[in-house]
Specification:
This protein is α+β, with helices and mostly antiparallel strands. It contains 1 helix and 8 strands; from the N terminus they run αββββββββ. The protein has one helix at 2-22, and strands at residues 28-30, 34-41, 46-54, 62-67, 72-76, 86-93, 99-109, 115-125. The strands form 2 sheets. Strands 1-3-6-5 form a 4-stranded antiparallel sheet, with no helix packed on it. Strands 2-8-7-4 form a 4-stranded mixed sheet, with no helix packed on it. The longest helix has 21 residues, at 2-22. The termini are far apart.
Amino acid sequence: MKKLMILCAVIIGFAFTASAQTDNKAEFKFNEEKHDFGKIPQGKPVTTEFTFTNIGEEPLILADVKPTCGCTIADYTKTPVKKGDKGVIKITYNAAVVAPFNKTIIVTSNAKTPQKYLNIVGEVVAAPAASSR
């Protein structure tokens, strides 16, 4: 019986140790996770930056930042972001088609939440016709 109690105590100890180790992982804290461009003119690409802070213990490493369509380009911090430091994900949207838009960017990293989703929204409106004089 004593052996069984010791075995249970050891297993519970390992479980707490494992969960404590995962709590040290890197973690995002974004200034915003959705950016609204509002109304933007057709044919004029627009850019925004999603700034984040690593609030975890381990360095935060972005493995990939992938927009879900070809009309959006992502550039991002390629070096590990240490605890308390900031990183940036820069998103450029090519406003080619007149229509409302809602685009998702998938951020893959070593954070507690390994995939994070950012959104950009807005409406592309027809550019005013150039007046000829």
